[in-house]
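In response to reviewer comment 3 from the previous cycle, which asked for concrete evidence that the modeling workflow produces usable outputs, we include below a single protein chain processed end to end. The sequence was submitted unchanged, and the resulting structure tokens are shown without manual editing.
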Amino acid sequence: MTSLRTLAFSAVGATLLLTSCLSDGQTMKPPTPEQESAFVTVTTLPPAIGEGGDEGTAMLVTGPWVNGTAIDARYTCDGTGVAPPLAWTSGSDKTKAYGIVLRDNDAPNFVHWVATNINPSTTSIGEGSLPNGTFLAINGSGKPLYAPPCPPKGSTHSYTLMVYALRSAIAVTPTSSAEHVIADMEASVLEVATTDFVYSR
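The workflow returned the following structure tokens.
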């Protein structure tokens, strides 16, 4: 059986050896990544990543105006009243359809344009055109089309155009109203891109 004296001498020797190693002028090497990983606290929470596109990016939409400035009269009731061309960046890879909404911020009960079920491979539309399969809801004027901005004479109205990335196509009927379609799009939205413009008469 090992004596207490032997254990005591062994402990003293180990202490002296440790002291010698720590005071011999050498510096300890930093831990390797493998060694550091042994001390990382594990969590079950995934990293925060948004629904759409790459992390840290957002959907964007552009039209033939600088955001917040005046729209060309061509796209209003004082011009040809044709719908403007648009381009947008792709939404989430979960996107199954896109939708477009144009609202008058100074007459919020009037919706100018609601188009939905745009093919998810589409990221731009030409002037006055929409891809096959697109559904146009009945707008504020009671028609399934683009109603051009037309504020009262002597006034300026501001407008917001939105492009929705949708997780599913919207169930529609020939008489689906703008309000009904917008509500369904908001329930299915992954991302929304917006751009604003004004028009004076």
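Residues 61-200 form a domain with the Phosphatidylethanolamine-binding Protein fold (CATH 3.90.280.10). We consider this sufficient to address the reviewer's concern, and the full set will be provided in the supplementary archive.
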